[in-house]
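Weekly sync notes, structure subgroup
Attendees: PM, AL, DS (notes)

Item 1: joint prediction request from the bench team. They want all two components modeled as one assembly rather than separately. Inputs as received:
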Amino acid sequence: MQEIDYQKVEFEYRRPPELDSGTVTHRPVVVVGAGPVGLSMALEFPRQGIPVLLLDDDFRLSTGSRAICFSKRALEIWDRLGVGQRMMDKGVSWNVGRVFFGNEEIWSFNLLPEPGHRRPAFINLQQYYAEGYLQEHAAQNPDIEIRWRNKVVGVEQDESRVRLTVETPEGTYQLTTDYLIACDGVRSPIRHMLGLEYQGVTFRDRFLIADIKMKAEFPSERWFWFDPPFHPGQSVLLHRQPDDVWRVDFQLGWAADPEEEVKPERVMPRLKAVFGDRDFSLEWVSIYTFSCQRMEKFRHGRVFFAGDAAHRVSPFGARGANSGVQDTENLAWKLAFVMRGQAPDSLLDTYGEEREYAADENILNSTRSTDFITPKSEISKIFRNTVLNLAKRFPFARALVNSGRLSVPATLYDSPLNTPDSDAFEGAMVPGAVALDAPVARLEPFDGITEAAKEPDPRQADAWFLGHLGDIFSLVVFDDGRPLPLGSLKLPEGVQLKVIVVHSPEHAAEAKSRLSAAGNPQVTHLVDVAGHLARRYDARPGTVYLIRPDQHVTARWRALDAGKVHDALRRALGLGGNA
Amino acid sequence: MSRLTTDLNLAAPDDFYEALIDAHRGLTLEQSQELNAALVLLLSNHVGDLLVLKEALGHARELALGGAETTPTA
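Output from the run, pasted for the record:
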């Protein structure tokens, strides 16, 4: 099958019916901006039973590769949305980064040193592929309407709704919505229309991106050079993308002329210095400066900001698009509960609290990386170079080398939705953490551990723990051989709960015979085939985890107590304590 | 509560001072700056405790500013 050239795809503008009817139609939710964040946002709503309208002022996908590193967490979210495998099939997976100083390798890191994860730390994939796959997935869904060349030019809101004025090639129309989500990028017209701004730092440095097509045998790793002989005094980053495309990112310094530096006669000699006489051709060239900034509040009444519209970071660390996709998963289920009347409006404030916290973490990491890569003062540069020199000989200094701290999801330690631990636990799965993945097998037809079962096929969603979580709350119980008191579970009104019982491989046969008599079809029984779940969750027989629709741990106990589960669910929905 | 030792902790203060000055002998100011940076990094790692390091950084900065700025780091 001939692959689509996603950079050339043009979407058809269709005359909106409002232009002829003259009526103001009402939508439950409108998303603006069909980038990776807006498309991910739109894909969430039909899963919650809510139709969505997506407006975009353009009629094309991303021009140029732009964002290329998509994180494990973004992939896991796209897995839940049903489009992750396509990204994987096309993307270049990588876990290892290497840092060079001059000619010498001084540091390497493996972002996923442990087996038992469905997805790698990162894939590299041109933004137009990510957007193309998301768009095709959305186009198949009758509950997602995308209107291209529909530009929002006016936004007003009162207590009950948001009124939008939309401009098309054939005139303007108005519509109203309960909620508006602005995923309209760094220059966010909606942010400007509401008179809102970013706050933060802009860095005085310029970087040149040259994406080139080249056959090369370099491994699929992230290579970062400080002061290499082929680009003295500055840094260079090399990344592999699909289709034999390589991302080369040159630091140029603040004095560089942005108009001149993108010309092929300037770019080609820089590339030849790196790659010598290899055959390559230019795919895309861009020059950029960057900022670490965010809006003070991501929620303004009935208008929500997500992705670059709400926050921006330097590219070192791949924390831009990846954090934007995480914004959308945080907002979707909260809006759904509020729209169904099952949670108070104040739940929506926690979107801001949680994602502003995550944005601060991203901005902090990104700012620190940038300070290392682009030292702001003479003494800062002396320390930086001294760290690099020390790193050649001393292990401690390697940990100080900062070429980008790569995107991992924020742990929402202080979220008001968490139920603080009342029992003792070790490890990373604290309330507020994103649930870690692990290989699993269904108890039926499980018939014993094989080596293959410990590392199942990543294409097989139900062979992985995260494949069983999401969209609704999950209660995960580690089997202790006793019957589950599910009859005593009382749920807050309208709340659905998926119950998952995890069995150790040693007890699987016993559990099978025990459960076949009293099987409850509402419960999913999984075998922890490699023991990763028990270890990663510090679980003992009887341990219970309550996991949010966005796969964040929200409460955990050493034993199942129906009253505590009920209270924790109410808390996670912003409904307060007992009721 | 102060965690940084500011009472004498060197067994042979004069020996240390001589070694410090000797280490810089014959270096340009630029090389000396590099030496100092390396020394700070090596010793900071040895100390390890961030609270102690921040306290030392605070005193050092105060001194550099001629006492104009008090408690610059927390």
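Discussion: Chain B has one domain: 13-64.
Action: AL to compare against the crosslinking data before next sync.
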